[in-house]
Amino acid sequence: MIIKSKRELNVLVLRDADRIADAVHHALRNASDSERPGLERAAALIAEQAAASEAGVRGRWVRDQLAAAGYEGPADTVQAIKILRRAQPSLSLYGAVQLAKDAAK
Q1: Per-position pLDDT tens, the chain of length 105
Q2: What is the 3 state secondary structure string of 56-101?
């Protein structure tokens, strides 16, 4: 979710990783021996994703938007910013540049 003001970019990063992790851990407590390895792997993947910084999550979102548009180049180019703004018309130029910087890191 992107909240704009004239010269600021405020991006609210929403995560449900805690709830998902709790559900997987609950399932692990009641898991059969055949289910356990898959649930343990799922728990590890969830923990890995939950550890990502907010800038990392924003960067991943930008890269996903660019990939959906078929763009494979660097995220912080003029072309990438144009594509990002076309994909998200409410995104200001300033906001797109800030997000592209996150994605380029």
Answers
A1: 454 445 555 665 667 888 899 999 999 999 999 999 999 999 999 999 888 888 888 898 999 999 999 999 999 999 999 999 999 888 889 989 999 998 998
A2: HHHHHHHHHHHHHCCCCCCCCCHHHHHHHHHHCCCCCHHHHHHHHH
